[in-house]
């Protein structure tokens, strides 16, 4: 081809869009790389490259592009920090798979520092660190930003074979001071106090959580408590009935397609959106419509 570079560059944008429309991401990537050769650093080209590398799970390349994009002011933005954290987390997982634990550790600590509110990186960071003040700070930062059951589980796993009483004492020290009114704090402490047979405390935490932000698991724990503390099967049954009508517990929910998952992943298994999962309660009405066929929804609406 004897096209002038300028003409070729302009043509590439159309070729990239056509390849993407044809779902031929490999070809789109080739065109985007060529465009980057012709005019390095062009904003739209870098954006395309980032999107295509993420889609292809080429996280090392994605990180390189992100570094080129985020020079200057944008480098400190929250969204950029989150992207670095998610990409760093995925790169750490690859290193782990390849047996490179030290490499993974460096990446995961950096990912947590970029965004202490990103739960999966915090969980892995906690499991990687030696005991000491630095690890305590990681736990405190993570719980302050995003209290989450996986973080509590990671903290509990640090001391295997701990007695329930010791775990209850440790959980109180780690979590209660940081987010005393959060439902996740109340839930961790309720579970720990049930384990330690501290019935009065358990009821206090569960009542607190039921008032502030009720969900099914809180009522299931109240059932557990009444059965263990008072052998009261009737009360337990009533709590179970109540749990069925209570709002659902939070889950990872895809912001693009509504898919619900118990564990986070970088790409949604249904719609392949990148970093679309947020930890929240499902909106029951909206999700009912999303999972039911339109005809069924019509039928339900007609029968009301
Ligand atoms: Zn999705």
Bound molecules: zinc ion
Query: What's the β-strand tally?
Result: 3
CATH architecture descriptor name of the domain at 80-158 = Alpha Horseshoe
Q: Output the radius of gyration.
A: 24 Å
Low-confidence stretches: 286-292, 299-304
Ends distance: 67 Å
Query: How much of the polypeptide forms β-strand, as a percent range?
Result: under 5%
The CATH topology name of the domain at 80-158 reads Serine Threonine Protein Phosphatase 5, Tetratricopeptide repeat
Task: State the strand order across the main sheet.
Answer: 2-1-3
The CATH C-level name of the domain at 80-158 is Mainly Alpha
Largest sheet: 3 strands, antiparallel
Structural class: mainly alpha
**What sort of overall outline do the alpha carbons produce when their principal axes are compared?**
elongated
Q: Please estimate the helix content.
A: 55-70%
Following the backbone from N to C, one meets helices and strands in this order, namely HHHHHHHHHHHHHHEEEHH
> What average pLDDT do the residues reach?
91
How many helices? The count is 16
Write a short abstract of this structure.
The chain has 16 helices and 3 strands. The protein has helices spanning 5-21, 25-38, 43-55, 59-69, 78-97, 101-114, 119-128, 133-145, 149-157, 164-176, 183-195, 199-212, 216-230, 233-245, 284-291, 294-303; strands at 251-254, 260-261, 277-280.
Q: Topology, please?
A:
Blueprint: H1 5-21, H2 25-38, H3 43-55, H4 59-69, H5 78-97, H6 101-114, H7 119-128, H8 133-145, H9 149-157, H10 164-176, H11 183-195, H12 199-212, H13 216-230, H14 233-245, E1 251-254, E2 260-261, E3 277-280, H15 284-291, H16 294-303
Antiparallel strand pairs: 1-2, 1-3
Helix pairs in contact: 1-2, 2-3, 3-4, 4-5, 5-6, 6-7, 7-8, 7-9, 10-11, 11-12, 11-13, 12-13, 13-14
Bound molecules: zinc ion (ZN).
Zinc ion binds next to loops.
């Amino acid at each position: 081809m004897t096209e002038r570079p300028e003409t070729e560059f302009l043509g590439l944008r159309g070729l990239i869009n056509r390849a993407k429309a044809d779902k031929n991401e490999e070809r789109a990537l080739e065109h985007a790389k060529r465009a980057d050769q012709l005019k390095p650093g062009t904003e739209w080209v870098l954006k395309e490259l980032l999107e295509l590398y993420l889609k292809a799970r080429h996280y090392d390349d994605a990180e390189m592009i992100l570094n080129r994009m985020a020079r200057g002011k944008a480098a400190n933005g929250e969204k950029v920090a989150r992207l670095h954290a998610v990409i760093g987390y995925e790169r750490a997982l690859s290193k782990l798979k390849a047996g490179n634990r030290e490499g993974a550790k460096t990446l995961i600590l950096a990912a947590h520092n970029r965004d202490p509110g990103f739960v999966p990186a915090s969980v892995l960071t906690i499991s990687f660190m030696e005991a000491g003040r630095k690890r305590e700070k990681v736990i405190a930062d993570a719980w302050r930003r995003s209290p989450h059951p996986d973080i509590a589980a990671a903290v509990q796993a640090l001391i295997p074979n701990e007695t329930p009483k010791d775990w209850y004492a440790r959980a109180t020290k780690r979590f209660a001071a940081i987010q005393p009114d959060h439902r996740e704090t109340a839930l961790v402490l309720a579970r720990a106090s049930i384990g330690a047979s501290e019935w009065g405390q358990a009821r206090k935490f569960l009542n607190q959580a039921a008032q502030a932000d009720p969900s099914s698991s809180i009522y299931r724990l109240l059932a557990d408590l009444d059965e263990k503390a008072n052998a009261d099967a009737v009360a337990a049954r009533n709590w179970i009935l109540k749990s069925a009508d209570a709002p659902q517990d939070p889950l990872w929910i895809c912001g693009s397609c509504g898919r619900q998952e118990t564990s986070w992943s970088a790409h949604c298994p249904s719609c392949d959106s990148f970093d679309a999962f947020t930890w929240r309660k499902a909106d029951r009405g909206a999700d009912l419509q999303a999972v039911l066929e339109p005809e069924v929804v019509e039928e339900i609406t007609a029968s009301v």
